[in-house]
Amino acid sequence: MDDLDQLFHEEPPPHSAMAGDDLKTPYDSVSFQSHFYLSVAIEHLQAIQTFYRATERTLPPFSFYSLARASIESAAYGIWILSGNKRQKRVRRSLKITYDNSSDVATLACRLGVPYDLENVRKRLTEIQAMIPGNRQYRLSSRSTTITSMLSETDKIVDNSVMSGADAWRICSGITHANKSIASKVLETSKISGTETETSSSYLVTTSVTMIAAVVSAAIEYTDHLSELIVERSTPNSSEARS
């Protein structure tokens, strides 16, 4: 992690793929995006660890899934960008995410009374896109890539030992959005004696240690892979810098 810690505080080294990508993304650089995604992924994992230690290894039945979901999703965005084998692909993906996010930023800025020129931002991003010959045929306004499609791609890259990122994300999303059908399949329940009636019973819901371990493991592996990609793309290499 020493190499990664150093990269967090420095510009990408010259003659690295990351430095070359940054030159093509002056508005919202690839290095800034990827480091931000990694920071978000790591912090959510740290929150799980901090809570677990502070409560003397207590496992809440629901909230850990939300934290693991955020970590997986954030890392997936970074992996999706950096896994492009050519610069034009990495830059195109980076610009597309920034373009798609701009509408959400504009909506929030309007609600908060903060100035934000959506038209100018999108115009600038489109100009940047047009400067890269291999990307001119792609429209930033085209349909967005869904997170499930993104996870299907990143799962082909990340070596998940227990559970795929897509499956872990679906489970975590179900719990996060209070989907009782999914919760009934992944959480452990036990009937509370003395609560039975002719039509119903009360149940105690507890955490499935096996399941939470599986989704957190997927989140850790995704985060580790993103950190490895950042180090790899930030390593000086003349031939890679031109890719």
UniProtKB/TrEMBL annotation:
Domain of life: Bacteria
The protein's name in its UniProt record: Uncharacterized protein
